[in-house]
Amino acid sequence: MAGPAGRTERASGAPARRQQVRGLDGLRGLAALYVVLFHCWLYTFPGYPDSSAPAWLDGLMFGRVAVVFFLVLSGFSLAISPARHAWRSGGAAEFLRRRAWRILPPYWAALVLSLAISWFVVPASHFGPPTAATVLVYGLVAQDVFTAPTPNGAFWSIGVEAELYLLFLLFLYVRRRTNAVVLVACVALPVIAGGLAAPGASPVEGDNWLAPHLAPVFVAGMAGAGVVAASERVRRLPWAWFAALAALPVLVLGVVQGSVWTVNHYFWVDLAIAPAMTLLLAGVATGRPAVLVRLLTTRPVESLGGFSYSLYLIHLPIVLAVIRRVAPHFVAPGLPTFLFTLAVALPVSVTGAWLFSKVFEIPFKRYRSWQSLTAALRARPRA
Length: 383
Description:
By secondary structure, the protein is an all-alpha fold. 68% of the residues lie in helices and 2% in strands. Mean pLDDT is 91; it is low at 5-18.
């Protein structure tokens, strides 16, 4: 999941506020919180997707959809600045440096934490504890290309995002030379054709090589970012209503076919729900619906969004440790374990992520180079 736009630097190296779209951080925070709830549900009740959980908890089983939303939001957020500057970037090297600076320090810190918990507390994978291959593959953020025992099941999407960052400038070039429709078609049509060519037109996904399939949802977000630089007439369109209309067929199909069918057809569900997500982001970016934007910009929700990347990175080892090492000593399996996990792992994950972000995320959002970061650290004792 991509970080928020954050800050930029003045020539002096001091941080300066970049113009932000209100509400996006709140959406990011709520999506991260849902992923935590999904994992509490997933590891409590066996049998996914035909889970042994009570039916009234079925709304928690769609963690993949939340990650797809992160990718749409990532494409949208990254494309906001280029959309305001005729779809031009600040250069390939500078873009990749900024992304690495923003994403890698918290990721590597979370990797160390996840390895320690996987080795000494509870493995994160049915393949067993991490190996030397794990350290190499995940250290290089190559988990979408190479297979190794995972130290943290949430890390799969970080590998996907890393690959999409490498393609972002190519996507941006196509958007600059053509238009949003051509960009989406160039990326989505080959994926759709590949899906239709699969046996039964239902591709079976593995643990990696997911970036080609998920590239269209990232590009959908990029295309939607054009609304921030559009004319006032375009910005006044009822984007939130368009989002509801686009989501309705997908929701109806999911209800009719059932949650198990939905999970088993994520290849198509991801592609089908991405337009609705993009339209929702367009609505929020234009300040509507106002009631939703007010909710997303309340202090608790916006604050959660501020450290949502840290929450996504570190919550799963905590959830697993509570479910598999702590809960069996206090409660029975099933629903009691789920409620115990919510009561213990959820606040520990949120508090731990907030503290983690103070060290490994926020400084890299606030200062965009080693020079400005170290200068701020040196100045702090004097202050």
